Amino acid sequence: MTPTPAARLLDALHRFNAAHPWDHNARYHPWLLRQLPRRFGTALDVGCGSGDLVRLLARRAREVHGVDADAEILDRARQSTPAPASAAVTYTVADASRALPDGPYDVITCVAVLHHLPLAETLTRLRDRLAPGGTLVVVGCARASGALDHVLGLSAVALNPVVGWVKNRGRPAPRPVSMTARTREPRETRAEISRTARRILPGARLRRRLFWRYTLVWRAPAP
Questions:
Q1: % of the chain exceeding 70 in pLDDT
Q2: 122 exposed, middle or buried (CB, 10 Å; 0-12, 13-18, 19+)?
Q3: pLDDT tens-digit profile of 10-63?
């Protein structure tokens, strides 16, 4: 069967994006850091993957703990963490759907991981690990639902190859290590995530974002 013009266009777009990859999550790292104090004591990065965000947090924190269920990608994270930062960094294999280090932590981050985990239970666990006055920042993925989500999705489809071309200076490139982590499609819509988050984290701020993301910021009540 001859592919339709639409199918050929999608295939060409997929091949172009594969040849010019860029990390959608890393795009939000500068924004994420702006939500945090200039200096803090302890931080936990849940689903840290290759450790890119852990290394950024280590520039501000006394201690940073990165946890991930994938032992292989944690080995890559350790190899990529230079000696000056490694003194403040610990990487641990852990299934965040079952347990997390006890804490408490002044900062907890969770980037493109929450949709892999049971939503309410994980948000409750993150809340309980946060120190009084601490900050939780989530960059998440939600299932598209409604006109606005689909408009943003189509905008991202159009912009994605442009950003990939610019970031790779028009040349084909290998996938970053951060993009080798396992992925899955999100189950919950943004509305479902918002309802659950506001129940467990009163006052949490959620926003839709480009490139199939949303953000959540919550600050624990001060003592």
A1: 96
A2: buried
A3: 778 888 888 988 788 999 999 999 999 999 999 999 999 999 999 999 999 999
Rounded Cα gap, residues 158 and 146, in angstroms: 19
pLDDT in tens, 149-200: 888 888 888 888 888 888 888 888 888 878 777 778 889 999 999 999 999 9
| Residues with Cβ within 8 Å of residue 180, at least 6 apart in sequence | 50, 73
Domains of the chain: 26-142+184-219 (3.40.50.150)
Pick left, alpha or beta for residue 58 (phi over 0 → left; psi -120 to 50 → alpha; otherwise beta).
alpha
Closest CA to 16 of 173, 223, 177, 197: 173
- The string of DSSP codes covering 118-179 is -HHHHHHHHHHHEEEEEEEEEEE--B--SHHHHHHHHHHHHHHHHHHHHHTTTS--PPPGGG
- The whole-number pLDDT of residue 86 equals 65
